[in-house]
Amino acid sequence: MKIQSTAILGAGSWGTALAALWGKNGRDLRLWSRNESLVEQLKTARENRDYLPGIRLPDSVKITAELRDCADVELIVFVMPSTALRTIADKLRETGVSKNAVLLSCTKGIEHGTGMRMSQILQEHFPGNPVAVLSGPNLAVEVARDLPTATVLACSEAERATELQSYLGSARFRIYTGDELTGIELGGALKNIFAIAAGISDGFGLGDNTKAALLTRGLAEMIRLGTAMGGNARTFYGLSGVGDLIATCYSSHSRNRRVGEQLGRGQSLQQVTSSMQMVAEGIPTTKSAYECARKLKIETPIIDQIYAMLYEGKPLAQAMEELLGREQKPERN
Fold first, then answer.
1. Coil, strand, or helix at residue 137?
2. Most exposed: 96, 120, 146, 224, by fewest CB within 10 Å?
3. Mean pLDDT of 248-275
């Protein structure tokens, strides 16, 4: 089926950036948010002043707070926080969607309790629809400013991946196709945990050597846990693994790195999160990853310490000392 219209569900920074990117050619594109005051602001100003100031949405983008406005499109893009995806999927299923519509997840997270990936939740709710995922080093503000980036996309129906690549890609938004959803999703989700760790290192002023070591050992954990959860090790060396890990651990635009940096400078988690308008996915993903690692009996020392800091109140200095004081051993992934 030829894609002629698209709906983006979620008008945070990433959803707004994608609407600005994909709507500039006059395409039929709808941007949905359940926040009615935000919808009115977007309609009036054509700018998301809360989440992506300075970026104007094309006039062709229709702004709506009604899910029924998004039910008849050929491509539905999910860009809400991971903790909200199941709820929105429930409501969308009640509204009804075309049985041929492609459902594309751009949400990076793992569900608490179930350990389910976002595409699995969509497949559970819409078993007859093709489901795709997109992930990579795609900082919203840079994509919205039309700075060159690359990303990777996979679909449950492989031939649809090429169609989506052609429809959504451009010279400035280069899309590669992948051959598995699992690794692509897990790379995009797990890297946020290590971005928090990198930010804590920055906040402590521990230097580039420490940060490089954290990233390298974080990648080892990502591969160890990700493969145990069904991902292909090779995928984690690509754009959704190493690529996204580098971007989120080093960029000043990374909200997860910024959360860690503020924690490292002595702020409490409550102080950090209360000052944020946007969700830092690394916080809920840490809990989900910790749960999955325990169930699968996978060794994840960095994830364990970040979990202890975020959810058990462990002092940051103590967690760092415990990481550094671990028994020395051969380097193995």
1. coil
2. 96
3. 95
Q: Using the CB atoms, write b or e for 154-182: b if 16+ within 10 Å.
A: bbbeeebbebbbebbbeeebebbbbeebb
Length of the chain: 333
Tokens of 150: 């690359």
Cα distances (Å, whole numbers) of residue 85 to 67, 79, 211, 307: 14, 8, 32, 22
Distance from C-alpha of 152 to C-alpha of 175, rounded to nearest angstrom = 5
The reported pTM is 0.96
Treating both helix axes as pointing N-terminal to C-terminal, what angle do 207-228 and 282-296 enclose, rounded to 10 degrees?
Answer: 50
CATH number of 191-324: 1.10.1040.10
Is 43 annotated as catalytic? no
Q: pLDDT tens for residues 177-228?
A: 998 999 999 999 999 999 999 999 999 999 999 999 999 999 999 999 999 9
| Cα maximum dimension of the chain | 60
d(CA 130, CA 149): 25
Which residues partner with 168 through β-bridges? none
Gap between the terminal Cα atoms of the chain: 43
Active-site choice (43, 62, 108, 191): 191
Q: Which two tokens stand for residue 228?
A: 């145990």
Eight-state DSSP code of residue 178: -
Q: Given CA atoms 50, 51, 56, 57 in this order, what sign does their dihedral have? A: negative
Query: Which residues make Cβ contacts (< 8 Å) with residue 260, sequence separation at least 6?
Result: 195, 196, 197, 198, 199, 200, 201, 202, 203
pLDDT (average), residues 147-165: 96
> CATH for 5-179, among 3.30.300.30, 3.40.50.720, 3.30.980.10, 3.90.79.10?
3.40.50.720
What pLDDT, on the 0 to 100 scale, is given for residue 323? 87
Strand partners, 103: 76, 131
Mean pLDDT score, 135-162: 96
